[in-house]
Amino acid sequence: MKYVEAVPEDIFRSEEGLGVWEHRGKVVAIGIGHAPTARRWDNNPETCVGAISIYALRQAMADAGVDPSHVDGLVIDPVTSTGADWPRGKPIPQDMLDRWEASDDPLDGLTKNSICWLLKNMPELTGIKFAMNASNCMSRALVAAAQAVGEGETHTCLVLKAWNNFEGRYYHGGANDGGSLPGSAALAALTNLWGTPACYATAMQFNEYCRKYGKSHAMMAPFMENSRRNGLLFPEGYWAQHRPEELRTEDYLAAPWIAEPANLFDNDLPIMCSGAYLLTTSERAPHLAQPPVYILNHASSRTLARSIMPTLEEVEADTARTGRKIYEGAGITAEQLSFENMYDGFSLFHQFHLEGLGFRGVGFGEALDFYQTDISIQGPNPVSPSGGNIGSGRSRFWMHTDCIQQIQGRAGARQITGIPAEVGVSGGPMPLGGNFTVWGVAPD
Q: Which CATH number fits domain 2-169+272-287: 3.40.47, 3.30.450, 3.30.40, 3.30.70?
């Protein structure tokens, strides 16, 4: 088996001027798998992060109608921690040790995933010839897997991302649990100070955005309502499964600040979840159980901020570059984009993605006005039909699932009806540093 410890940077299409992706339309997504969600781990070995990962992988194969022995590739994000981490020195539960085949790392399957642990506990995967780690999020793993299929490293590839969520206050575990901070003391003091919320950089950018363009935080309300409404139509998501509550404008505007002008609802909800996809070649697609969704391009941002956080000007310049790379590599124009499912883990940067794409002709400073129009799945301008992290809980993969399901015509009650769902784009996480995929109903 060829094992790649970390996905090489040279596979990412992070520069302009590369032309149409050489594998456009040759790689397809077929199968989707999700495990049931939970707010936190219930200490049951059957619901640990490794267990729900296996569940999602098996669901993806079953959904595609693929015999597990025919799968020859596995690309995963091994990082699964969000919020609190496993306390130092805390013993591994005995029932966890009894239930699962262990790897050399006792935390595998509990606080992280590994290729080794998954293969030990999925004996049906007898044909794996290529395996790769793609840390960060599903957007990165998908891009890595698509490139691997295109290059012939694997012809039938599983892609996995999962999250665990233990008891404890958010960001009070891991490195934040020690007596000192890693790296440069000056940089750590500014960027990792205890109590600094993760959304603070986005909040500062959004604050500048509102000053520059004369907008307000209240103008986000239609987007937030739309995201929750779409999320409640996503049966795989947390809010639909556990808290089927609409988000009303008055509730959104009355929520407490986390880092003003980012409030409680502007931050996604950490959950236990896992998602998996099965990618294959266009030649194999006709023999499988679901309609193929063709990958038309992938593009990445690798821009570094000049200081400890990106300025509004840097964000706008980079999202515009990303939009150009997305369209150039797919061989399409903004007018051909049916819908967008860009990342929204902090809701206040979704408009940066949308404006960078020029979705429906929206320019910089115009997205919040656009939110006041019909952005629903029933209208001509569907924004975030997945509901994203805001609508379904933190996963970093709802947007990819929705793109695939929309184009396959099996998004159920969430299916776009105002226009044909023929070309979609998804990706993230942040405006600077993200990975993006273009999906199409046809290879060209």
A: 3.40.47
